[in-house]
Specification:
- The protein is an alpha/beta fold.
- The chain contains eleven helices and eight strands.
- The strands form two sheets. It has a five-stranded parallel beta sheet with strand order 5-6-7-4-8, with helices on both faces. It has a three-stranded antiparallel beta sheet with strand order 1-2-3, with no helix packed on it.
- It is elongated, with a radius of gyration of 26 Å.
Length: about 290
């Protein structure tokens, strides 16, 4: 699984601190770091931490020319608290950057599993499936499990797709990109401009390099045949690399299969892939709500 690596100095500082705290914790558990092997004597002392009470403190030392050099371990509970805080800080920063890079439309930035209104049992079932997918992301990722969200406009497909993306980022620090067929075609067309700094290969690499790709508007007929071949090539390349893809379409499952081809439809179903159908009336029409 690929994780984003940033030049952000705060991230690097946190990673260094996590590594150092890990060494401190090992030392507190009795493992002397290689760099301290020169300390040839050791003992355990019972001491007390103001916050956590008594613990066994490791003392290592060496004598040289009548002088004593020594080092003491710290309270393991304090180290664990600091380590957890550092990991949480790192996770928050990386999640924020990954969400920023995920290209989530402004209209959907507040969407989550918690604020999705399941209007019927089918909607509740789809919600449960997507929650389970996010919770079991590592298994889904390793199996290359893809999903198709199919159904009528205004039934919550985009809301749940964004909620899925955010949950996977926050829980697993995976890279996710949301796009649409039109955006892919536009990105390809821009590479044809004279002086373009990007090639078609660069565009394809952008879409085939992320852990999870979410493609909206599948089934809308536009673009030349060669442009659509590139779209299919992106999806097929991800299949070959066992990288999950989620496609969103207002078409019925049979129409999606006709649009992208039975071969690709079958490949989307491999690795326990599923098609989630949203076949009820528009939430927007019934509630006057914004598009979700």
């Amino acid at each position: 699984m690929s994780y984003s690596i940033y030049g952000n100095s705060q991230i690097q500082t946190l990673k260094t601190r996590i590594s150092t705290l890990g060494e401190d914790l090992s030392f507190a558990d009795g493992t002397v770091p290689d760099i301290d092997r020169c300390f040839n004597q050791q003992e355990k002392l019972t001491t007390s931490c103001e916050k956590h009470g008594q613990y066994q403190r490791l003392r290592i030392w060496m004598e040289y020319n009548g002088r004593v050099a020594e080092k003491f371990s710290r309270c393991p509970h304090c180290i664990n608290d600091e380590l957890e805080a550092a990991k949480n800080s790192l996770r928050t920063i990386q999640s924020n950057e990954l969400i920023e890079k995920a290209n989530i439309p402004e209209r959907f930035t507040s969407c989550s599993f918690d604020n999705y209104e399941a209007v019927n049992s089918a909607a509740q079932r789809n919600l449960s499936v997507l929650k389970a997918y996010a919770n079991n992301w590592e298994k889904m990722y390793n199996a290359g499990t893809s999903l198709i969200l199919s159904g009528k406009p205004g039934t919550g497909k985009n809301h749940l797709a964004v909620a899925l993306a955010k949950s996977i980022i926050e829980q697993h620090q995976a890279s996710v990109l949301l796009t649409s067929v039109m955006r892919i075609i536009r990105a390809v067309r821009r590479t044809w401009d004279k002086g373009s700094e990007r090639s078609e290969d660069d565009v394809i690499a952008m879409y085939t390099g992320v852990d999870l790709l979410v493609i909206d508007e599948v089934g809308i007929h536009y673009g030349s045949e060669s442009e659509m071949i590139i779209l299919f090539d992106i999806m097929n390349t991800r299949y070959e690399r066992m990288l999950p893809t989620v496609i969103i379409s207002n078409l019925a499952p049979a129409e999606i299969s006709q649009m992208i081809g039975e071969r690709l439809t079958d490949r989307m179903a491999e690795g326990d892939g599923a098609t989630l159908v949203f076949d009820w009336g528009s939430y927007r029409s019934s509630k006057g709500a914004p598009s979700v």
